[in-house]
Design brief:
alpha/beta, 5-stranded parallel sheet, two-stranded antiparallel ribbon, binds iron/sulfur cluster
């Protein structure tokens, strides 16, 4: 009998602390079960340089804070069937939005010029340009599911992935997962 094709899953790290990815790794033995059902095609846990075409599920950590974040979010949306905002930074913009009251240039000068011990100057080479404000993912692209938490509990991530792999849309309002 032919095996069912594996789901193509991607993860992405926008403006976040990687804690949501750590929670993803914390699903313990589900990782072994998942290994037989998914192929991880992009994210900090694999070596791919470009977000690929034909992704089934994309889990996105972090707010949209820079032009690079925005471009990656748009690429993710265009190439993924189901996009998940993973964690409070992606869901609400959370910690990254603490800078939103200050215009980006003033903020950068405060940190890199007024606050510099040596060699003051705002870095420009290889640094993505900040957007005016850090925003939740759904303000940049259409999101199919929000998974809250800072970070989301591993049980929530496990539930969501299991449901999706079974062909069901996860319902986080149904009390299937405790958020603390
Ligand atoms: Fe880190 Fe919390 Fe943001 Fe996840 S939601 S990236 S754990 S600050």
């Amino acid at each position: 009998m032919k095996n069912a094709p594996k789901a193509r899953v991607a993860t992405a790290w926008l403006d976040g602390c990687s804690g949501c990815h750590m929670s993803l790794l914390d699903v313990d033995e589900l990782l072994l079960a998942l290994a037989g059902k998914i192929t991880l095609v992009f994210g900090p846990l694999v070596d791919a340089q470009q977000f690929p075409e034909g992704v089934d599920v994309a889990l996105v950590e972090g707010a949209v804070s820079s032009q690079d974040d925005l471009k990656l979010a748009q690429t993710i949306r265009a190439r993924s069937k189901f996009v998940i905002a993973l964690g409070d930074c992606a869901v609400t913009s959370n910690v990254p939005s603490m800078r939103n009251a200050i215009p980006p240039q003033r903020l950068l000068e405060r940190v890199y010029v007024a606050g510099a011990g040596a060699q003051p100057g705002v870095p420009t080479d290889g640094v993505p340009k900040l957007l005016r404000a850090a925003t939740p993912l759904h303000e940049a692209i259409k999101v199919d599911l929000h998974v809250p938490g800072c970070p989301p509990p591993a049980a929530a991530i496990a539930y969501v992935l299991t449901e999706l792999l079974e062909g069901r849309k996860p319902d986080l309002t149904a009390g299937a997962v405790k958020f603390g």
